Amino acid sequence: MTIDWSRERILILAPHPDDETLGCGGLIRKAKDAGAEVYIQFITVGDTEDNSARGPSTAQERYGEIKEVADFFGWDGWDFAFPGDEYHLKLDVLSRFELSNAIERHSPLSVTTLKPTVVITPHHTSYNQDHQATAEAVHTALRPSDNRFRHHPRLVLAYEEAADQWRQDTAPPPNFFVELTEAQVDAKIEAMHLYGSQAHAHPHTRSDLTLRSLAALRGMHVGVPFAEGYHTLRCLV
Q: Which processes are annotated in GO (biological process) (predicted)?
């Protein structure tokens, strides 16, 4: 399957700032280089007690990092659905109805408003409760129905992060691969450096070596130097 990314309008759901880069940073660079539209729907952000050399990070600090990453990639838009400490790392107590409705129709970057051709979500087997809640809400928001009355994105994917492997019932291996150049992998890593409050040295799931190693592993699976792996939830060709 060959995709002409220049024709795509991509909506990426990121529970927190940096998830879109960890899961899709290479694809984002590849798609933007081709001329695609890329939008990031963040779900929540708040003050965080990070276990890093930088110490705790504030929501205000994260907003500054987002603006740098948005400029670096050239995103066409980004938005927060539920910002604030009331929701950050607590999306599992938010009703599925409220969260899925925000994704489907109530956010400025909702599926109904944006009408994306591609939607990319976290995988539901993540250990993180916000990732699980987001993934399940996306499944509800994109439920099958009559496409004459509700928009159905042609391609729906779930992205992976290295930390997702920390479960006994981890997801099966990816079944959709996006080939990356070394420059696109480098761009993904550079973008993570812009998320200074979230970047970590090796060994860590967000280290440079982890990101490059996962890209090399997924590339090996399909016979190319580098790739990102995804799980196909819907593919209409």
A: glycoside metabolic process
Length of the chain equals 237
Angstrom distances, CA of residue 221 to CA of 2, 23, 152, 176, 230 = 17, 17, 30, 11, 12
Q: 97 Cβ partners below 8 Å, 6+ apart? A: none
pLDDT for 186-212, tens place per residue? 999 999 999 977 677 888 888 999 999
Beta pairing partners, 10: 38, 118
Q: What is the pLDDT of residue 220?
A: 98
3-class state of residue 230 by DSSP: strand
Query: Cα–Cα distance between 10 and 121 in angstroms, integer?
Result: 11
Characterise 168 by phi-psi region: left (phi > 0), alpha (psi -120 to 50), beta (else): alpha
Domain 7-235 has CATH 3.40.50.10320: yes
- Provide the CA 212 distance to its chain's centre, in angstroms: 17
Instruction: Report how far residue 60's alpha carbon sits from residue 228's, in angstroms, rounded to the nearest whole number.
Output: 30
User: pTM here?
Assistant: 0.94
Domain ranges of the chain: 7-235
Contact 192, 206 (CB under 8 A): yes
Strand partners, 231: 158
Among 172, 170, 163, CA closest to 198: 163
- Residues of the chain where predicted confidence (pLDDT) is lower than 50: none
